[in-house]
Amino acid sequence: MIVRLLVPFLLLSLMAKASQALIHEVPLVRNITELPQDNYGRPGLSHITVASSALHGMKEIEVWLQTFAPGTRTPIHRHSCEEVFVVIKGSGTLYLASNAHPQYPGKPQEFPIFTNSTFHIPVNDAHQVWNTNEQEDLQMLVIVSRPPVKVFIYEDWFMPHTAAKMKFPYYWDEQFFQSTVKDEL
After folding, report:
1. Rounded Cα distance, 87 and 31, in Å
2. Using alpha carbons only, what angle is made at residue 179 by residues 144 and 77, rounded to the nearest 5 degrees?
3. What is the pLDDT along the chain (185 residues), one digit of tens a residue?
4. Measured between alpha carbons, how far is residue 99 from residues 3, 69, 112, 134 in Å?
5. Three-state DSSP class for residue 156
6. CA 39, chain centre distance (Å)
7. What is the dihedral of CA 76, 155, 81, 26, to 10 degrees?
8. Other C-beta atoms within 10 Å of 161: how many?
């Protein structure tokens, strides 16, 4: 009887201690609903940095939770890192232009994405994610390698690679960086 009463108390005590442990001045265990959320000037986007190089000292990966309202999309872009998506809810379309054309991205392939689907983007492949579902949000967990990410943005699929606009640091990393970095191409 005493053991049954003590177990819940001990579990709560351990959880409280874990949430008080700090890694790089950030609690080890956090409630995702309490993390900062922003759209960075892009209506229809909700971005939460779950773990990052700048804020958490991550060296190999960065993790984001992104929610796209119906009709919202990323710009056409590429980056020199790998990227993995896990669709938590909703559906949409992934547009992916493999790195086959040396001058510009070219016509992309279209892939339906949906709840519980996962996909990865190879290094430097131009892509765009679009919430094409008119009824519900598209929410994804995004994991990127080699943070912080340098993003190259295209106006269309036939814009030359050399004309793509580099954005570094990317919007959610801006507060941590003040220097300018040159294009890798």
Report:
1. 20
2. 40
3. 554 544 444 444 444 444 445 555 777 788 989 988 989 889 999 999 998 877 777 888 999 999 999 999 999 999 989 999 999 999 999 999 987 788 999 999 999 999 999 999 999 999 999 999 999 999 999 999 988 889 999 999 999 999 999 988 677 666 655 544 455 55
4. 60, 29, 20, 31
5. coil
6. 13
7. -80
8. 18
| Residue in 114, 113, 132, 137 with CA at minimum distance from that of residue 44 | 137
Q: What one-character-per-residue DSSP string does 78-121 give?
A: EESS-EEEEEEE-EEEEEEE-TT-SSS--SPEEEEEETT-EEEE
Which H or E element spans position 20? helix 2-20
Which candidate, 143, 127, 140, places its Cα nearest to that of 75? 127
Which residue type occupies 128? Answer: Q
Reduced to 3 states, what is the DSSP secondary structure of residue 135? coil
Please tell me the pTM assigned to this model.
0.79
* CA distances for 30 relative to 34, 71, 79, 139, angstroms: 8, 31, 29, 19
Q: What are phi and psi of 104, to 5 degrees?
A: -155, 165
Contact 103, 62 (CB under 8 A): no
